[in-house]
Write a structure and sequence with these properties.
Bound molecules: (3S,4R)-3-hydroxy-2-oxopiperidin-4-yl beta-D-xylopyranoside
Strand order of the largest sheet: 1-2-3-4-5-6-8-9
CATH topology: TIM Barrel
CATH architecture: Alpha-Beta Barrel
Low-confidence stretches: 1-13
Mean pLDDT: 94
CATH class: Alpha Beta
Number of domains: 1
Order of helices and strands: HHEHHEHHEHHEHHEHEEHEHEHH
Distance between the termini: 61 Å
Number of strands: 9
CATH superfamily: Glycosidases
Length: 368
């Protein structure tokens, strides 16, 4: 064998031996490619740290996703840290990364009871609150107008324990403005960027448990109320933070719930899918199987409705998941709730997503 080709062979075998776990899959289409065939999208949340420090993970985000959302960088705490100061560093970084790769971006979130800077609540008086909210939305939504495909205008508005009208959460915004905060937020978002889809995002509506079934009804009632008042709400985001140790998915009830949302003329987006496993035993293979089956049951009930536009997971790889902070396993092992493992290899959850998407009927082509 000529020296040159022997060296080439040697080099390629060294490279092969040191290839990362996902390298046997690069030619297999990513989840977004599966979703696109059906007229849907797939994407993920991206945190600011990996965006700048983990190029291998970002390569996988590029390979699997057609849309991204920042995990934290557009929240008030990050983007509006002081009353007179905005900080767009993290938000711009994601926007630039995605724009350079022709990946869509969704915005999360303009109104929430969490992730607010310390200055906010004391500054919200009857006289100032509406202007503060309007100015924030005008500035943030205006900055990304034309580039943002959706905005989670309001996040997690419901909390029946607070015993407020319409089961609204007793948040800083409700205290300052009453239920009108919803109207103000949706109208201001429309004014600042008429083309970004306006979403209300909610969680804990996944299971046939009394209080979650009531929450489904409360969400439907809130949407109906807003639409009746001509508030420009266009879609509901179902966060889908699932729990593989919870009761089985009630597929019939869940698909009826999605149909009820759609019957109001609203779109549906699966915004934050992950599957926590802290109630399952340690075995990796058993956990992966259970997580995948649980997600598959949920997805198979939701995706067939043509009002569902697409799915995003809340992180792509188990190497970076908020589940480890919020729902730490008692045995200290890492959660395995995302489509890729810590080495960026595709897991059974990836296959469950691909198969559920593949078995969905293609969406009718958009009119016009
Ligand atoms: C979480 C982030 O993932 C964490 O990094 C942060 O510390 C807290 O917020 N529902 C939401 C998201 O709408 O904004 C939350 O994100 C997860 C639950």
């Amino acid at each position: 064998m000529p020296e040159l080709s022997r060296r080439a062979l040697l080099a390629s075998s060294i490279a092969a031996a040191s290839l990362p776990a996902w390298a046997d899959q690069p030619s297999q289409p990513g989840l977004h490619a599966h979703a696109r065939i059906k007229g849907m999208f797939f994407g993920t949340a991206v945190a600011s740290e990996p965006l700048t420090k983990d190029p291998a993970l970002m390569d996988r985000v590029f390979a699997e996703c057609g849309i991204v959302v920042s995990e934290n960088a557009f929240k008030w705490f990050d983007i509006h840290p002081e009353k007179e100061k905005y900080d767009f560093t993290g938000a711009d970084a994601l926007m630039n990364w995605a724009t350079a790769r022709k990946i869509a971006v969704r915005g999360h979130t303009l109104v929430w009871h969490e992730a607010n800077p310390d200055w906010l609540e004391p500054a919200l008086t009857k006289a100032t609150a509406e202007k503060i909210l309007r100015d924030h939305i005008k500035t943030v939504v205006g900055r990304y107008a034309g580039r943002m495909v959706h905005w989670d205008v309001v996040n997690e508005p419901l909390h029946e324990e607070d015993k407020k009208p319409l089961a609204l959460r007793d948040s800083v915004w409700l205290r300052a403005l009453g239920p009108a905060y919803l109207d103000i937020a949706f109208h201001a978002t429309e004014a600042a960027d008429p083309h970004a889809l306006r979403v209300m995002n909610e969680f804990n509506v996944d299971y046939e448990i009394d209080w979650q079934l009531r929450k489904r009804d409360q969400l439907l009632a809130l949407c109906a109320d807003l639409l009746h008042r001509k508030v420009p709400l266009q879609a509901v985001g179902l966060q889908a933070h699932l729990d593989a140790g919870e009761i089985a998915i009630d597929q019939k009830g869940l698909s009826q719930f999605v149909a009820d949302i759609a019957s109001m003329g609203l779109k549906v987006i699966v915004t934050e899918l992950d599957v926590r496993d802290q109630r399952l035993p340690a075995s990796v293979s058993a956990r992966d199987t259970a997580v995948a089956a649980h997600a598959r049951a949920w997805l198979d009930a939701v995706l067939p409705n043509p009002a569902v536009l697409g799915v995003l997971s809340w992180g792509l790889s188990d190497r970076a998941s908020w589940l480890n902070d919020k729902f730490a396993r008692p045995d200290g092992l890492k959660q395995r709730g995302l489509p890729l493992d810590e080495d960026l290899g595709r897991k059974k959850l990836w296959t469950a997503l691909a198969n559920s998407i593949d078995s969905t009927a293609p969406r009718p082509a958009p009119k016009g």
